[in-house]
Amino acid sequence: MEFDAVVLAGGGSTRFGGVDKAMLVLDGVTLLDRVLTATAGAAQTVVVGPVRTTYRAVDWTVEDPPAGGPVAGLAAGLQRGTAPVVVVVSCDLPWLTADDVTALVDGLGEFDGYGLRDSSGQEQQLATAYRRTAIQEAIRRGGDPRDKSVRRTLAGLNLTWTEPTRAGDDVDTWADLDD
């Protein structure tokens, strides 16, 4: 099934002391490029955040106004592409693979979204394949997307989740980068 990818890479990385988390290197590859490798099968990929050097060509956009949070980033990213399925990922998922992305798209079924659980069992709304119309409608219903909670905004969607997996583990602190 054809899908687009929206990669959120505009956060402030405050827990990393302002270091650009997307450009952190793990095993010789930036976190952003690791996610871009996992989503390489997308018909169109848009990265929401400042333009950076990446290993493959992608579209770039920023939320309006900048620093409006992840829901505003989603709203901006969803303005690009036309595929009926959108894989939404944050740039800080270093263990995500192309096989994981394929499994999310293939496992969508009749649900509005099919997402990863991290290794602790936490549902990761920013590591999920969504039906484009469902996520767009959820954001529209929420009104102005600035500074909104992703969980609250998407709470009305019919979502299902994988078993816990390392692929859903995001990197929020330096300790999270330990293999």
Structure description:
The longest helix is centred in the last third of the chain and has 10 residues. Strands 5-4-1-6-8-7-9 form a seven-stranded mixed β-sheet. The chain starts with a strand and ends in a 15-residue tail after the last strand. A hairpin with a 2-residue loop joins strand 2 and strand 3. It has a single domain, classed as Spore Coat Polysaccharide Biosynthesis Protein SpsA, Chain A. The chain is of the alpha/beta class and 179 residues long. The model has no long low-confidence stretch (mean pLDDT 93). The chain has five helices and nine strands. Helices cover 22% and strands 24% of the residues.
How would you briefly describe this protein structure?
The chain has 179 residues and is of the alpha/beta class. It is 22% helix and 24% strand.
Would you tell me which CATH topology applies?
Spore Coat Polysaccharide Biosynthesis Protein SpsA, Chain A
> Rg, please?
15 Å
The proportion of residues in beta strands is 15-25%
CATH class: Alpha Beta
- CATH homologous superfamily classification: Spore Coat Polysaccharide Biosynthesis Protein SpsA, Chain A
CATH architecture: Alpha-Beta Complex
Q: In the residues, how many domains can be counted?
A: 1
Strands side by side in the biggest sheet: 5-4-1-6-8-7-9
- The structure class reads alpha/beta
InterPro entries: MobA-like_NTP_Trfase, Nucleotide-diphossugar_trans
Keywords: Transferase
GO molecular function: nucleotidyltransferase activity
Domain MobA-like NTP transferase: 5-150
Primary descriptors:
single chain, 179 residues, alpha/beta, Spore Coat Polysaccharide Biosynthesis Protein SpsA, Chain A, two-stranded antiparallel sheet, 9 strands, 22% helix, Nucleotide-diphossugar_trans
